[in-house]
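Researcher: Can you fold this with adenosine-5'-triphosphate in place?
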Amino acid sequence: MVDEPSLVPVSNSVSQVLPSDLLVATGLCKSFGGIRAVDNAEIRVVRGSITGLIGPNGAGKTTLFNLLCNFLTPDKGCVIFDGAPISHLPPHQVALQGLLRTFQVPRVLSRLSVLENMLLAAPLQTGEKLWNSWLQPLRIRQEEQELRQRAWTILESVGLAAKANDYAGALSGGQRKLLEMARVMMHRPRMVLLDEPAAGVNPTLINQICEHIVRWNQEGVTFLIIEHNMDVVMSLCQHIWVLAEGKNLADGPPSEIQTNPEVLRAYLGQ
Amino acid sequence: MVGYLISLGIFTATFALFSLGLNLHWGYTGLINFGHVGFLAIGSYTTILLGIAGVPMFFAVLVGVVLAMGLGFLMGIATLRLREDYLAIVTIGMAEIVRLIALNEDWLTRGGRGVYGFPLPFVNFNPNVPTKLGMIALFWGVVGVAAWQWWHWLERRYGRSRPPWLLPSYAALFIAGTLSLWAALLPLSLGRGVATFPFVLTWVTLGGAIALMSYYCRPEKAAVLVIALNTLAAALVGLVVKALTLGLWDFSYRAGLLWLLILVLALVVWQLERLIHSPWGRVLKAIREDEEVAKALGKNVFAYKMQSLLLGGAIAAVAGAFYAWQLTFVNPDGFVSLITFQAWTIVVLGGAGNNMGTLLGAALFWAYTALTRFIPLDGGRLEALRMMLIGLVLIILMMWRPQGILGKKEELSLGR
Ligand SMILES: Nc1ncnc2c1ncn2[C@@H]1O[C@H](COP(=O)(O)OP(=O)(O)OP(=O)(O)O)[C@@H](O)[C@H]1O
Ligand SMILES: [Mg+2]
C-alpha cells in the first residue's frame, strides 16, 4: 500500500482507478445491429456511496447495467470491481464477487414461495451441491435454519413477512419490487445495481423504499441506481451520472446536474 | 391373472421410473427433453450386452448408467447454453441417433434381429417356504401401515361423526369389492369377457362402501367425489396387493423382478423427494421459473442444468435395464420416439413437477393401456384408436385441469 502506486492503469483508457472506487467501467460499447445502445460510456462508483444513473428513455442505462455485470458481453471496454477486472467472468461469478443487480421489470420466481425466493439468494450454500445432500445432511439442515431466520428478519424489515408463505407470483407489482430488493440483500452484497426501484410504486412505498436503501447503505452496501423519479435521485444520490444516446453527457453532484443546461436539454428536448 | 397383473405392474413401475427422470428434467428444471428414450436405449443395450459378455449384472447396469450420463453430457454441452427449444431438437436427434446405431451396428447389437437370451436377475433364486412367508408377512406389514395411514387421512379430512362400526363395515365392503373385482377380471385376463355376476357385485359392494363413508362425512359434493375416487383407487391397489402376495408365494422370475423394481422405485422416489426439497432442488426450480434470476443471484445455471440432465438420464438408464429384463427380447423398435412421448403423457397427466403425480400418471397410463386392449379391433386399428383416445384425454385434461391431476390449481393464476 505504501510503495505500490495507488493508481492502477486501465487498459485502452486514460482513466485510472482510485482506491476509493468500488466499480469503474471505461470505454464500454455495445451495439444491437445498427443501434449503438452504449457508446464509449464511462462510470465510476465510490465505495459506500449511493450513485445515480439517469437519462432519457432508451438512453442505454439498462444496457449499461447488463454490461456491468456481464449479462451482456461488451463489444469493447473494461469493468473493474474492487480493483480487479470482471469483464471476463460469467454473470454468476460476478454475483459471487458481491456485485448484485435487480431487473427493471421485477422478476420473481412465481411458483416458489416468497420465503423460498429469499432462501435461494443466499450464496454458496452447502446444500446447493448435489452430493452434499448425502455427505452433510445435518449441516444443510442447520444452515437452512439460519437462512430462514435471516430471511424472516429481512422480510419483516421490508414488510413482506405476512406474505412469506404465499407464491411470489401472487405478489403485486410493488411487492415484487420489494421482494427483489430483499432477495438481493439476502446475498450479503457489497454493491447493488437497482434498475428503477421506484417505477410504478405509490409515493408512500417510494418513501419506504428510499428508507430501506439508506439503511442498507449505512450497513455498508454501495448502490448504483437507475431512476426516472428526480425527487428520489436528488435526495438519495451523492453523485449522478447522466447518459444520453449511449454516451456520457455529464456527471456530478445533484445540485450541479439539476442546473446543467445540457442535461436539461436532453430531458426536455431541443 | 397373477402373471398378467405382475407384467402390468412391471411395465407401470418401469415407466414410472423412466418418467421420473423426465419429470426431473421438465417438471423441476424446465428442460424440454424430447429424446428421453435415448437414455433408456443405452441403459437397456449396455446392461444386456455386458450381461452376455459375462459382466455381473449390477456392474452392467452401472456401466449403462455411466454411458447414459455420457450421452446426457454430449446433449448438454451442445445445447444447454442456448435457448431451450434447441435442447428439444437436439435431444430428439440424439435419441434417434442412438436407435439408428443400434439398428445398423450389427456386430454390436445384432441390428433389427434383436438381442435375446441375455442373463436375467432372479432366474436361479428359489426361496424356501419360511423365507416366502417372511417376505409376505413383511409385505403385509407395510401394506397394513399404509392402509391405516390412508384411512386416518380420509377420516380426518372428511369424517363427521365416527361410529365405531364404520371402519369394520367399510373394510368388509371394500374387501368384498376388491375380491369380486378380482373374480370379475380373471376371465378377462384369459381373453374371455368380464364375468357378469362378480362385476355387478363389485359395483354393489364398492358403491355401498362409498355411500356408507359419504353418509358419515361432511355434506359436500366434492367430498363424495374424493371418497369415491379414493375407494376405487384403493380397490385397484388391492388387486395389486393380492397379485404381489400370490407372486411372492409362487415365486417366479417376474415376481422377483417386480419386487426388485418396486424397491428401486421406492428408493429413487425417496431420494428424489429429498433432493428436490434440498437447496439444490430449490436452485433447479428457480431455473425452471427464470434462469436469468438464478444467474443474477450467483447460481451456475449451466452446471445445474447439466446435473439435472445427467441425473434424470441415469434414472432412465436404470429403467432401461428393467425394460430389457421384462421384455427378454430387445430390438431397436423398442426405442422409437413414441416411448418418449408416452413418458411425456405420464408426466403431464399426473402433473409436472410432482413425483407422486408421475407415479399416478404411470398407473393411469398403464391402466388405460390394459383396459383398451380388450376393445375388439385388429392390431393396427386398435393402436390408432388408442392413440386417438389418449390424445383426447390429454386435450380434455388440459382444458379441465391444465396443471395435471395432482398439480396445484393456484399455480395457474400466477403472473410471471
Ligand atoms: N436486446 C436488444 N436488442 C436490440 N436492441 C436493444 C436491446 N436491448 C436494448 N436495445 C436498444 O438499446 C437502446 C437502449 O435500451 P435500454 O434498455 O438500455 O434503455 P434505458 O436507458 O434503460 O431506457 P428506459 O429508461 O426506458 O428503461 C434502445 O434503443 C433499445 O431499443
Ligand atoms: Mg431501462
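Model: Folded with adenosine-5'-triphosphate in place. Residues A 32, 35, 37, 55, 57-63, 104 surround adenosine-5'-triphosphate (ligand 1) (CB under 6 Å).
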